Amino acid sequence: MDADLLRFATAGSVDDGKSTLIGRLLFDSKSLFSDQLESVERVSRERGHEYTDLSLLTDGLRAEREQGITIDVAYRYFATPKRKFIIADTPGHTQYTRNMVTGASTADVALVLVDARKGMTEQSRRHAFIASLLGVPHMIVCVNKMDLVDWSESVFEGIRAEFTEFATRLRVRDLTFIPLSALSGDNVVQRSANMPWFDGAPLLSHLERLHVASDRNLVDVRFPVQYVVRPQSHETRDYRGYAGTVASGVLKPGDKVRVLPGGHETTIATIETADGPLEEAYPPMAVIVTLKDEIDISRGDMLCRPANAPAVLQDLDAQICWMDESAALTPGKTYGIKHTTRTARAVVKEIAYRIDINTLHRVEGVEGLALNEIGRVRLRTTKPLFVDEYQSNRQTGGFILIDESTNRTVAAGMIIRESNAEAAPPVETE
Q1: Which in 20, 73, 98, 180 has the greatest CB count within 10 A?
Q2: Is the pTM of the predicted complex or chain greater than 0.90?
Q3: Residues 63, 129: one domain?
């Protein structure tokens, strides 16, 4: 059986050691090529360091190396005999909140780093809040630089108590604390002899054992159609398959399904991949589904269970993280919206409030959302979308807004409540 894949994102204040921690994971798990290590060692010597600066492994942009900060999301891959990993090293600066949202949006785990000397900071709270807002199922608080506080258990316990109290105001399903030193490697891959009072597993062991399969929604069948497969050969002229990625639920041949938006019901005939037919498909598998009945289906339609369908809506309440630096989000403006494989246009009906992501307080009466700000908005779309609440289904509860003049992604959205379901009949309207 292949090792399963775990995606995790790092977050935390500037200089908390995120890049160093990832470098330590790569180094201690022997996931580096010799030329990579030689390059890092050479640059470390040129800078006058008496140690190998492992943060250079992830701070790949020239501007990042010159400033000693992380700007963009740096993705890294490594594997152990037990599991494969994809790491998103996200920025700590406030002005790069949008980058942190990008990195954490697909993560199974959020690693929030806290400097043991400083304790919780505004950035610690901000990133914990964003991770919970994005529905990241697991959060690991890495209390770093324990070597600089003499490996103090009381310092660690104080930070754990403060963070735990803050987390009670968030939707955090699984919260773990690990004291470590990324620079020296204590409790990163190997247990630390300097902290015998900590009886938990080191970070890598915890990541290897973390159970994430149950985090996927295997109850609500959602299959957005991405492409209609119509081979042109004479032998297959009657073939019609529907390609897409299973967003949630489990599909099997013989299952009854409903097709949205039309509402027609039929039965799954086969589920296929390039390697042959399957007995079942589940997220995030990419498959081709064939049906027993001929139904007019196109890109953007969705298969679901007859008795378990998403809401079919044109009016949406959502949390928005605004990502455009050239213009603010303002009521009355129209954007393109992409939700699963479905596209439409959306007008901003109102902004209910902006969230102060340092205090979690609502700021009402705002006229717009500027770069990196998060707020609750109401949207009206030109055609119905097939949606679930984001907290129950990240795939069908999330969307992006697109500036139609530049084709840039300007916002990430999370549906928090389906509003006014009666206003969105299951028919196409322009």
Answers
A1: 180
A2: no
A3: yes
